[in-house]
Amino acid sequence: MATLAWILAATAVGGIASAAMAGLFLVVPEGPRARLLPHLVSFATGALLGAALLALLPEAIAGVGLPRVGEIGVTLVIGIGVFFVLEKLLLWRHCHADECETHAPGAHDHHRDRATGTLVLVGDGLHNALDGVLIAAAFLTNVRLGVVTALAIMAHEIPQEIGSFGILLHAGMPRRKAWVLNLASSLTSMIGGLLAYFALRRALSLLPYALAIAAASLIYIAVADLIPGLHRRVDARHSAAQVVLISAGVALIALMEDQVH
Fold first, then answer.
1. Residue 132 near residue 192 (C-beta atoms within 8 A)
2. Taking 70 as the threshold, does the pLDDT of residue 96 lie above it?
3. 170-198 per-position pLDDT tens digit
4. 132, 145, 146, 200: which one has the fewest Cβ atoms less than 10 Å from its Cβ?
């Protein structure tokens, strides 16, 4: 039951913190917000890659043993393909900057804006539930891996929830209602974590493959979703800042891994 408590605590804290940071961040004037958000995304990119490649994948490989390491590779490839299809079907919707297609002035009429807001809530709810599954798989392996995974996911969730909150406001939703619904969609991670806890406990042999799927999720988000947005800024100053912040995200995960071993 201690593991379940860790899972519920990590998913609850992550959901509440992400929604709270989104609400606070949107209080910041538009100019500073626009300058800070890309830096958050850069740091999140490094944290996601670090958690996937330095924590989740090594644990998955250790779980099956070197003779079966190819199975982890196959699972990783399948996971990336699944997330690609999910995003294509608009079941997984991300928006990490105010200047995305959903925010384009005049791009949608009022009804389309409201439909977009609904889609974002549904997509975020599914995405956060899946995050809960990934966190549960990590905690069922060991607490150290669970904490590292939860922190990496939280680093990604904060800029995502800022974007989602902005979309809801753009759709004409009152600020308080938008924040409450944003918080509710964030807390679906608790449902995913709870369901995964009971499902994976009955099939512990599947844990290494669940970790590989978790790694695939983080890699896909970083490579397919975040990095293309970073490439929109090509001047030397911003590029250098991106490299430093991505490196800082990776270094934080590496430091955590080193400290808890």
1. yes
2. no
3. 667 787 888 888 888 889 999 999 999 99
4. 200
Concatenating the DSSP letter of every residue in 146-177 gives HHHHHHHHHHHHHHHHHHHHHHHHHTT--HHH
Instruction: Report helix, strand and coil shares of the chain as percent, to nearest 5.
Output: 85, 0, 15
For the chain, how many helices (H) and strands (E)? Answer: 11, 0
Nearest to 33 by CA among 24, 20, 42: 24
Q: Is 41 exposed, middle or buried (0-12, 13-18, 19+ CB in 10 A)?
A: buried
Work out whether the CA dihedral 114, 119, 190, 221 comes out positive or negative. Answer: negative
**Model pLDDT, residue 150:** 92
Does 2 have pLDDT greater than 70? yes
Sorted by sequence, the CB contacts under 8 Å of residue 87 that are 6+ apart come out as 93, 94, 224, 225
Spatial CA neighbour of 153 closest among 5, 33, 48, 29: 48
For residue 55, pLDDT beyond 70: yes
Decide: 52 and 145 in contact? Cβ < 8 Å. Answer: no
Here the tokens at position 14 are 């992550």
The conformation of residue 107, written as its DSSP 8-state character, comes to S
